Amino acid sequence: MANLPATNQLLFSAFVQRSVAGYPSIAFVSFEKTSGKSTAFRAFLHAVDGITGGITSLGADPANGKEAAIDGHLHFVKPGTIIATARQCLPYCEPTRTILTDTSVLTPLGEVIIFRAESAGRVFLAGPSIIADAINIKKTLFEFGAECVLMDGAGARISPANPRLSDGIVLCANLAPDIAQTQEDLQYQINLLQTRPLVDERLREICQQKQPAQISFALVDQNYGTHLPCNGETINQLIETVEQQNQTTRAIYIRGALTDRQAEGLVKYAETNPALVKNCTLIVEDPTKLMIQPKTIASIQASPLSLSVLHPIQLLGIAVNSSTAGSGYDRITDFLKRLSTDCHLPVFDIQRGVFFENSD
């Protein structure tokens, strides 16, 4: 990562080595497009040293397949790197290669092929957008000798942060000219991704029990009894049914996504019936299932409800794309330093050669 001064380069390289040692599979994710994910991905890939790396992409960038835009989406790899990419990308991959396997995993650019680079050169990545397929590709990369797997995200998607797929993630974000707005946006994103894990192990066991596929939620009462909806019963109706049994609701486990509409309805019910849901916890599988906006999160926090996830996400650091921020090196550098201190995470900006890591 030539843009970093020597001292920052050493600090960044040490951060990357710690990251891949502790979290063998790492995804680069963003809530927005053109946030510098590929730039951060390349910086990580360049800094991985002494181990065999595996790389793939989660989905296909909108530019993929358009020859005029391909050059900006090529990644330089060392000999021995194991690559998973779509068949139509192979003509744009420069290294001599040994094909290791085809995968039967299909993308808009053809089947995903896994090969080992026998020489250095640039490669063009495209992969599956379905998480289950991406998990299988990751496993195959490890089976063929990868000691760490880096996954470049495509578009504005946080689904690759799913803990079933990635051991850790790097959050990539644009730095807007209005730094106050960027700070507000990032705080929301960080808080969402770091939603606290469920600490009640008995509740965890109940939520992980297999339920009929058509069941979208379950209630757990104060005695850890489980109540499932029937005949199109809504969450509010089921809460009332439990209350009629002289119980209050300890937790509501929501399978799939929690949306603004669902959360706002539950908050409204909690405000009018606080005794029925006092200290009630809303539980989802992981933070990627939280399809809620900052206003909704604030409403939950101000209500008798709380929010937890079964499987937390490990946020390793924040990569900032400052090319969208305009001028003012000192202004931007001060913000990045403050951001690292406030969120207790490494923050790096490849374009400006800046790396900060809170020492607390």
Characterization of this structure:
- The protein contains 10 helices and 19 strands.
- It is of the alpha/beta class and 360 residues long.
- The strands form 4 sheets. The chain has a 10-stranded mixed β-sheet, sandwiched between helices.
- The model has no long low-confidence stretch (mean pLDDT 88).
Compact description:
By secondary structure, the chain is α/β, with parallel strands linked by helices. It is built from 10 helices and 19 strands.
Helix content: 25-40%
| Rounded Rg | 22 Å
Poorly predicted runs are none
Give the biggest sheet. Answer: 10 strands, mixed
Task: List the keywords.
5-stranded mixed sheet; 360 residues; 10 helices; 10-stranded mixed sheet; alpha/beta; 19 strands
Q: Would you spell out the secondary-structure blueprint of this structure?
A:
Blueprint: H1 6-22, E1 25-29, H2 37-47, E2 53-58, H3 67-70, E3 74-77, E4 82-86, E5 97-107, E6 110-117, E7 121-124, H4 131-143, E8 148-153, E9 168-174, H5 179-193, H6 201-207, E10 217-221, E11 226-227, H7 235-244, E12 249-254, E13 258-259, H8 260-272, E14 280-284, E15 290-291, H9 294-301, E16 305-309, E17 315-321, H10 329-343, E18 347-349, E19 354-356
Parallel strand pairs: 1-8, 1-9, 2-4, 2-8, 9-17, 12-14, 13-15, 14-16, 17-18
Antiparallel strand pairs: 3-7, 4-6, 5-6, 10-11, 10-12, 18-19
